[in-house]
Task: inverse folding
C-alpha cells in the first residue's frame, strides 16, 4: 500500500488529439494523485472537455499514453510490447471511471431508480434487490429518494443532474469526471447540484476531475487547478494561486473576462 | 346484372379460406420483414465495409426491382437451381425480404434519431455494445417507428393479391377461380374488395391507436 498510494491514479503523458486538421490537445501531460480534486478551467475550445472525454474513452488519442491506476488506458501490455487496447481491455478500464455530462444523458425510457440500477445489474452482476437498496441510498444522498419512480422527463434540470450523479456513483468508480455539469441549468438550480458535489468532495476519497465555468465553485472544490488554453496547460497551482495570484498573462486575461461577465471569483 | 345473394352464400366458404391464407401470409411476411429489416439496418451500420457494402447493395437491388419479378424468381426460377419452395413459403420469403428493405430504412432513421449522448452515457456506465443496443438504443428507437412499421403491414396486406401469380390460394386467387368457374365476377370481386376494405379499416384503426400510444414518446 505504502508505495502505491504515492503513485498517480491518472498519468497523462504527451497526449495529442486532433479532429481532422484541428489540433485540440498538443503534447499534454499531467498527473493526478489518488483522491485529488482537480479543476480544469479555461476558454471554450481549450481542450479541457476533450481530455475528460478521452479519459472516459469517448474519444481516442492520436499520440502519447494515458495510465489509469498504473495501467495503460488505450494500450495493452503484452510480452513487454504495447498493443492497441481491445474492447475487453477498455471495458475493464472503464469500470474505474464514471462521468457526469453537461446534458445529463439520463436514459429517458427508464425511471430514476432504473437509471441508477441498470449498470450495476448488467455489468456488476449485482442482484436487483441489492442494487435497488444501494441506489436508494445514493438517491437519498442526492436528495431524490422521493423521485425514484419518476421518469426523467418529469424532473427539473437540477434533479436530472443529481440523478445522473447518483447513476455515475452506482458503479463505485475510483475516478469521477464532471463535464460542465451545471452549464445547462437555470441559474436557480445550479446550487442544488453544487451542494451535492461539495458533499461528495468532502465525504469520499474518490479522485475527481471537474471541468467548469463556475470559478468560485472551482476555488472551493479543487485541491489544484489547471488552466488550459489552446490544447495546453498554461498554468497550474492551488486554487488561491490561480485565482488570486495568476502568474501567466493568459490566465490573468481569462479571469478578467470572467469577472467582467459578472462572476465572483 | 343483379346481385345474387344465394351465390354469395355459396362462394363465401371458399373466400373465407382465402382470407385466412391472406392474413397468414401478411402476418408471416411482416414478422420476417421486421426481423430481417433490423438485421439489414444493423449490418449496414457495421464499421466493416466488407459487411456494410454488400448488404447496402442487396437492399438497393431488392428495392429497385418489382416484387412480382422477385416472387416469380423465387417460385419458378429457384427450382431450376434445385431449391423447391412451397407457394406460400416462396411468397412469405419474397414479401418478407422485399418489405425488410423498406423497414430497414425505418429502423435506420429511428436508430439515428437516438441522441449521441445516450451512446456516451451507456459507455460511461460501462455497458457492452450488445447491452447498449438492447437496453438503451433499441428501446428508445423502436416505439417512435411503430406507426411507420405498422403502415408497411397494411401496405403488404393490400399487395398480397400478387401471391396469386405464384399459385397461393389467397383471397384474390380463390375469388378468381370461383368467378371463372361460374362466369360471375360481380359478387366474388365485390366481396374481395369488401374484405380488403374491412380488414384495412380495422388495421388503420389499430395503427391510429399505436400512433397515439407511441407517437408521443420523449
Result:
Amino acid at each position: 500500500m505504502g508505495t502505491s498510494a504515492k503513485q498517480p491514479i491518472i498519468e497523462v503523458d504527451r497526449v495529442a488529439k486532433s479532429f481532422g486538421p484541428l489540433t485540440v490537445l498538443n503534447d499534454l501531460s499531467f498527473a493526478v494523485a489518488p483522491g485529488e480534486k482537480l479543476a480544469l478551467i479555461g476558454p471554450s475550445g481549450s481542450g479541457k472537455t476533450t481530455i475528460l472525454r478521452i479519459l472516459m474513452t469517448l474519444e481516442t488519442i492520436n499520440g502519447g499514453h494515458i495510465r489509469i491506476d498504473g495501467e495503460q488506458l488505450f494500450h495493452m501490455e503484452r510480452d513487454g510490447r504495447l498493443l492497441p487496447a481491445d474492447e475487453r481491455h477498455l471495458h475493464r478500464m472503464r469500470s474505474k471511471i464514471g462521468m457526469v455530462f453537461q446534458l445529463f444523458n439520463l436514459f429517458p425510457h427508464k425511471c430514476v431508480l432504473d437509471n441508477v440500477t441498470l449498470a450495476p445489474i448488467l455489468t456488476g452482476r449485482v442482484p436487483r434487490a441489492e442494487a435497488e437498496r444501494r441506489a436508494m441510498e445514493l438517491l437519498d444522498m442526492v436528495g431524490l429518494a422521493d423521485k425514484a419512480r419518476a421518469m426523467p422527463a418529469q424532473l427539473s434540470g437540477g434533479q436530472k443532474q443529481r440523478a445522473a450523479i447518483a447513476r455515475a456513483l452506482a458503479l463505485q468508480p475510483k475516478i469521477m469526471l464532471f463535464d460542465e455539469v451545471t452549464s445547462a441549468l437555470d441559474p436557480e438550480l445550479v446550487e442544488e447540484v453544487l451542494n451535492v458535489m461539495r458533499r461528495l468532495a468532502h465525504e469520499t476519497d474518490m479522485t475527481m476531475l471537474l471541468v467548469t465555468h463556475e470559478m468560485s465553485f472551482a476555488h472551493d472544490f479543487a485541491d489544484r487547478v489547471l488552466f488550459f488554453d489552446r490544447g495546453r496547460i498554461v498554468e497550474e497551482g492551488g486554487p488561491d494561486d490561480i485565482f488570486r495570484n495568476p502568474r501567466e498573462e493568459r490566465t490573468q486575461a481569462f479571469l478578467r473576462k470572467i469577472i467582467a461577465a459578472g462572476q465572483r471569483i | 346484372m343483379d346481385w345474387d345473394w344465394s351465390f354469395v352464400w355459396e362462394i363465401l366458404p371458399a373466400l373465407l379460406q382465402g382470407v385466412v391464407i391472406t392474413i397468414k401470409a401478411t402476418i408471416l411476411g411482416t414478422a420476417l420483414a421486421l426481423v430481417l429489416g433490423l438485421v439489414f439496418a444493423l449490418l449496414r451500420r457495421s464499421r466493416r465495409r466488407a459487411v456494410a457494402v454488400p448488404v447496402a447493395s442487396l437492399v438497393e437491388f431488392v428495392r429497385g426491382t418489382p416484387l412480382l419479378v422477385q416472387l416469380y424468381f423465387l417460385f419458378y426460377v429457384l427450382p431450376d437451381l434445385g431449391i423447391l419452395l412451397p407457394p406460400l413459403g416462396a411468397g412469405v420469403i419474397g414479401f418478407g425480404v422485399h418489405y425488410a428493405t423498406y423497414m430497414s430504412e425505418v429502423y435506420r432513421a429511428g436508430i439515428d434519431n437516438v441522441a449521441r449522448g445516450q451512446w456516451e452515457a451507456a459507455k460511461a456506465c460501462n455497458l457492452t455494445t450488445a447491452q447498449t443496443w438492447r437496453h438503451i438504443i433499441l428501446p428508445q428507437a423502436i416505439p417512435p417507428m411503430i406507426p411507420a412499421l405498422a403502415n408497411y403491414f397494411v401496405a403488404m396486406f393490400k399487395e398480397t393479391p400478387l401471391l396469386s401469380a405464384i399459385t397461393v390460394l389467397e383471397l384474390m386467387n380463390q375469388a378468381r377461380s370461383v368467378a371463372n368457374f361460374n362466369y360471375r365476377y360481380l359478387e366474388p370481386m365485390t366481396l374481395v374488395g369488401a374484405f380488403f376494405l374491412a380488414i384495412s379499416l380495422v388495421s388503420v384503426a389499430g395503427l391510429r391507436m399505436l400512433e397515439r400510444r407511441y407517437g408521443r414518446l420523449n
Summary: Residues 107-172 of chain A form one domain. The mean pLDDT of chain A is 93.
